[in-house]
Amino acid sequence: QVQLVQSGAEVKKPGASVKVSCKASGYSFTSYYMHWVRQAPGQGLEWMGIISPSGGTTNYAQKFQGRVTMTRDTSTSTVYMELSSLRSEDTAVYYCAREMAHCGGDCPGDVWGQGTTVTVSS
Amino acid sequence: QSVLTQPPSVSGAPGQRVTISCTGSSSNIGAGYDVHWYQQLPGTAPNLLIYVNTNRPSGVPDRFSGSKSGTSASLAITGLQAEDEADYYCQSYDSSLSGYVFGTGTKVTVL
User: Fold this and answer.
1) Environment class of A82 (CB within 10 Å of its CB; exposed 0-12, middle 13-18, buried 19+)
2) B68 in reach of chain A (CB within 8 A)
3) Average pLDDT of chain B?
4) What is the DSSP string of A6-66?
5) Predicted local distance difference test score (pLDDT) of residue B1
6) Residue B106 sits at the chain A interface (C-beta within 8 Å)
7) Which of A20, A77, B95, B101 has the smallest set of CB atoms within 10 Å of its CB?
């Protein structure tokens, strides 16, 4: 079945970087865009950016430009999200979400990973 | 803060109908960009509920329906059930931000 499996929880110190992985299975990896979304404790959802697994092109939310890098490895059907210069406000659950294909408009995330908790603390 | 505004909470008795609004602007919903809705149960990832304004993915009960008009969209839940108690988020694209945006989120409580 279609599945996105993310890497495990991370604890980082302020100023460090974190790299979260999202391994796809059950579908053609290069045929679907992948989004990254985060959710701080008790807060709402926040869109971080999108990557095309086929060509590797990216579009980052303005808030994260310069601090986020999204990459992919087609040989392992895995996308990565790296966030640098971490601060306490980056403590959140990070999700990858596959973009639905051929939805007839702007397409949503139809399959989500289980989430990766990133804690930034000194 | 989010550019899509939702009421923080709505509530209703079992069997009742509740609606959740999602108010945007001329750079997102009003510009014609589609609206999607997600349900998030406590401690779990969001689940797609409505896509492209009015469409339900397979497996989503027809108690859930979406609409869009002008700079706003709405999610309606009819025949409210205890299992509908969750957080709900709208999503659209914003041309001034050149990216996707989520609503502020609404907690639905079943009385």
Assistant:
1) middle
2) no
3) 96
4) E---EEE-TT--EEEEEEEESS-GGGS-EEEEEE-TT--EEEEEEE-TTT--EEE-GGGTT
5) 61
6) no
7) B95
Residues of chain B neighbouring A32 (CB-CB closer than 8 A): none
Distance from CA of B70 to the nearest CA of A (A): 17
Q: How far is CA B45 from CA A32, A40, A46, A104, in A?
A: 19, 13, 13, 24
Q: Which residues of A38-72 are buried (b: 16+ CB within 10 A; e: fewer)?
A: bbeeeebbbbbbbbbbeeeeeebbeebeebbbbeb
Judged by DSSP in three states, B62 sits in coil
Assess whether pLDDT exceeds 90 at residue A106. Answer: no
pLDDT digits (tens, 9 = 90+) for B18-43: 999 999 999 999 999 999 999 999 99
State how beta strands B9-12 and B106-110 pair: parallel
Checking if the pLDDT of A23 tops 70, the result is yes
- Chain B residues within an 8 Å CB radius of A61: 97, 99-100
Question: In this complex, is the C-beta atom of A58 within 8 Å of any C-beta atom belonging to chain B?
Answer: no
Q: What are phi and psi of B52, to 5 degrees?
A: 45, 55
B59: left (phi over 0), alpha (psi -120 to 50) or beta: left
3-state SS class at B101: strand
Report CB contact under 8 Å: A95, B45: yes
A62, A105, A110: residue with CB nearest B99: A62
A105 vs B53: CB contact, 8 Å cut-off? yes
